[in-house]
Amino acid sequence: MEAAAFTLELRQRLNLPDATEDCWCPLCDGVLDRYNHHAATCVAGGERIQRHNAVRDLLFTWRPMTPSPPAAADIYIPALVFAITACETQGSVFVPMVAETTGTWDAGAAIVLRHVAQAVAAQSGEEAGPLHSTLIQELSITIRSYRVRAALRRRLAAVEA
């Protein structure tokens, strides 16, 4: 993580303001608060989709290895889908994988992530606990780094405006 991103993430973690006052978000005209909470949820700019794709791609690298090649579009792991689809007709159960921009996972998603770690452990012979911790850490860092990028982008654009 770059120094500016790390510093901003640390400020957000400690709930310290990044700016002296609120301003207008240059991408959506919403209020960009001095703590950058808005940047984490702003619908403009594409960062939410980039964050989604990065989390999906990272989780895909953790899947237990299977002989079939990955599917196109969103990666499909049986019983683990990131978009609402016709799961029932395919014999799968839809589990929403909800994460906060702080890297905290919903209880249902946390169970699925533990199952992923257990499946990887069963194949690799490693212990599931440390694998689960590593998986959660990697996902949290990915989520938080995209949140920081969104904040940095908006702050730079607001200063230049």
What keywords describe this structure?
161 residues, mainly alpha, 6 helices, 2 strands, 54% helix
Task: Summarize the structure in words.
By secondary structure, the protein is mainly α. The chain has six helices and two strands. The model has no long low-confidence stretch (mean pLDDT 85). Strands 1-2 form a two-stranded antiparallel ribbon. The protein has helices spanning 3-13, 37-41, 47-62, 87-90, 107-124, 128-160; strands at 23-24, 31-32. 54% of the residues lie in helices and 2% in strands. Helix 1 (3-13) packs across helix 6 (128-160) and helix 3 (47-62) runs antiparallel to helix 6. The protein has one domain.
Topology, pairings included?
Elements: H1 3-13, E1 23-24, E2 31-32, H2 37-41, H3 47-62, H4 87-90, H5 107-124, H6 128-160
Antiparallel strand pairs: 1-2
Based on secondary structure, the structural category is mainly alpha
Shape annotation: elongated
Parts with pLDDT < 50 across at least 5 consecutive residues: none
Relative helix content:
40-55%
Oligomer kind: single chain
* Number of discrete domains: 1
Q: Largest sheet, if any?
A: 2 strands, antiparallel
**Proportion of β residues?**
under 5%
Counting H and I runs of at least 4 residues, what is the number of helices?
6
Average pLDDT across residues? 85
What's the short story on this structure?
The protein is 54% helix and 2% strand.
